[in-house]
From TrEMBL:
Protein name, as recorded: diguanylate cyclase
Enzyme type, top EC level: transferase
GO terms assigned for molecular function: diguanylate cyclase activity
EC number: 2.7.7.65
InterPro entries found in the cross-reference section: Diguanylate_Cyclase (IPR050469), GGDEF_dom (IPR000160), Nucleotide_cyclase (IPR029787), Rev_trsase/Diguanyl_cyclase (IPR043128)
Alphabetized Pfam families for the sequence: GGDEF
Length: 393
């Protein structure tokens, strides 16, 4: 059996293994629509070597010639679309459709043309190279935006795939790809094509698999660090996100302030209006935090009716109007909800502080606000009305 036949069988098995790997990831995240693209891409890619074998060993040559061409083109397009989706970009549907349509029309136009002719071979490979170029362009764009070496590696791999597809016509012209499609698997060109192409597809597949696994792990981490009711960070997420910000503040000496919030008499809301109304109040207050907090702030629900906001590059005095805006917006929440107010405490990082000590100090000020009448933020920057509370803290 010719070496190219072995290469075709090996490439089909490799594509199947990649498809299964992506399918397993897909089943682990049933609600995520990003990962099926690559499972589909490698299923389609598997059809290409199988179709080449069909051309070689069956009488349905025309049928398998068509499926070989189309499956390979669709496979590369699916990879490019999958990259866009994983990166959070809109899939380029129109451009992808135009590439597929151009490829189909080109293949029809050159059907039955002279094999090994350079113009014929260039026309045959051009749609594949353009599709791979689309994947390369998407990866380059993401690599620039995210400064990601992994995405840069994907872009380079797609770049090699483009070069490979554009070089193939010259090899076919120089060494011959077989007098007929059936004779292709016996040619030296077929061995070069399948061996080199297989190596590139494996490289691209492994890099994409790393990106998919990284995206899946990021999704798992996000879910584990997010509050299910509000969508903002939970205590674990707050601690992880705040640790980096706190370390930066300690290194640079820039101010950092924590504000804790506690909804007033929240148990009475649950008892009077029911837990569904209480949940609606919790969600609405989280929306208030999102709208009033600066973009760089870390906000979280620590549990129950307790929330926190970490403000980098912000002093205690600078945090006061932000906390006051949250308090005022809370009273103006959706009138269909039970009326609610919030008390808050502010604490600025001091030399020698840890994240826990600042958080603890802010908590004590929040309790002071509740003990002094609720619906207020402590300490008041003026300090005149709360000096007694300050002495107790």
């Amino acid at each position: 059996m010719e070496g190219a036949v072995y290469a075709l069988i090996l490439n089909a098995l490799v594509a199947l293994l990649f498809s299964v790997a992506f399918a397993i990831i897909r089943m682990s995240y049933p609600g995520d629509r990003r990962f099926p693209w690559f499972c589909t891409a490698y299923l389609l890619g598997m059809m290409t070597p199988l179709s080449e074998l069909g051309v070689r060993f069956t009488a349905h040559q025309s049928w398998f010639m068509a499926t070989s061409y189309l499956s390979f083109l669709l496979s590369i397009i699916a990879m490019a679309m999958g990259l866009a989706v994983v990166a959070g970009r809109a899939p380029p549907w129109r451009l992808a459709g135009a590439i597929v349509a151009t490829g189909v029309l080109t293949r029809i136009a050159i059907w039955g043309g002279p094999r090994d002719d350079l113009a014929y071979e260039l026309a045959y490979q051009a749609p594949f190279a353009i599709a791979a170029g689309l994947g390369m362009a998407i990866a380059i764009d993401v690599a620039k935006a995210n400064r990601s070496r992994l995405w840069l590696a994907v872009a380079i791999a797609f770049g090699f795939l483009v070069v490979y597809l554009l070089v193939k016509p010259f090899f076919a012209n120089a060494f011959g790809s077989g007098a007929t499609a059936a004779a292709y698997t016996s040619s030296r060109y077929a061995l070069f094509s399948q061996a080199t192409g297989g190596a590139l597809i494996v490289t691209v597949g492994l890099l994409i698999l790393l990106i998919v696994v990284d995206a899946a792990m990021g999704k798992t981490l996000l879910e584990s660090e997010s509050d299910a009711l509000t969508g903002i960070a939970n205590r674990r997420g707050f601690e992880r996100q705040s640790a980096r910000v706190f370390a930066d503040a300690r290194r640079t000496g820039k101010p950092l302030t924590i504000v804790t919030f506690d909804l007033d008499r929240f148990k009475a809301i649950n008892d009077t209006y029911g837990h569904s109304a209480g949940d609606a109040v919790i969600r609405a207050f989280a929306d208030v935090l999102r709208s009033e907090a600066p973009e760089s702030a870390v906000i979280a629900r620590l549990g129950g009716e307790e929330f926190v906001m970490l403000l980098d590059r912000t002093s205690q005095r600078g945090a006061w109007p932000i906390a006051q805006a949250v308090r005022e917006a809370t009273m103006a929440m959706d009138r269909r909800l039970p009326p609610v107010t919030v008390s808050g405490g502010i604490a600025e990082r001091q030399p020698g502080d840890s994240l826990d000590t600042v958080l603890h100090r802010a908590d004590r000020w929040a309790y002071a606000a509740k003990n002094s009448g609720r619906n207020r933020i402590c300490p008041d920057p003026a300090g005149a009305s709360l000096r007694v509370i300050a002495r107790n803290n």
